[in-house]
Write a structure and sequence with these properties.
With about 180 residues, the chain is an alpha+beta fold. It is built from 4 helices and 6 strands, in the order αβββααββαβ. The chain is about 30% helix and about 20% strand.
């Protein structure tokens, strides 16, 4: 009898201590004044999380004048070289997570992708990619929203003449918050 009670207590403790996975399936999050979409790929455990207002998440990068798709092998420079955006982007991501969340995420990276307006150089959209089994799946959508807002507010680029010919400029990186 004591064994059964001990097992039941252990199972309950595991359930209580387990972190909720918010992103197990494709769904829409209606939050405080914003809506996020979580798309889970059918053939994998990878998640794409983005603001439902995004227009470019699944749009090909094209030349505005011709509609021709930009080759993945295209190595043309899309924005002027500078040295401040990368550390600023890393800082924004780092500051969005609490110390407890950072400890939970240790050893795991996720992808942050920005879509840059080729006319203004400003961040117009942001999306996130991670696996459903990673600890990022236990982070509430409000944290990702904070990153999106801060990137849009504090990051910009200077598009080259080539970059201005595109419908967007795509910049992404993987990061583990520190």
């Amino acid at each position: 009898m004591k064994s059964i009670i001990t097992i039941i207590i252990a199972i309950c403790a595991l359930k209580i201590s387990a972190q909720e996975n918010y992103y197990k399936s494709t769904k829409t999050f209606h939050e405080n004044g914003y809506t996020y979409q979580c798309d889970v790929q059918d053939d994998s455990d990878f998640i794409t999380l983005y603001n439902k207002d995004n227009k470019l998440t699944y749009v090909d990068k094209i030349f505005k004048s011709t509609g021709e798709q930009v080759s993945m092998l295209d190595n043309n420079v899309e924005f002027e070289e500078e040295n401040w955006t990368r550390p600023k982007c890393f800082s924004i991501v780092n500051n969005a997570f609490s110390d407890i969340e950072k400890r939970k995420l240790k050893g795991a990276r996720f992808a942050i992708v920005m879509y840059i307006d080729p006319n203004s150089g400003k961040v117009s959209e942001v999306k996130f990619r991670f696996a459903s089994f990673q600890p990022y799946a236990t982070i509430p959508v409000s944290v990702y929203r904070t990153i999106e807002i801060e990137l849009k507010k504090n990051i910009w680029f200077t598009p080259t003449e080539y970059g201005k010919k595109l419908n967007y400029i795509y910049i992404g990186w993987k990061q583990q918050p520190e």
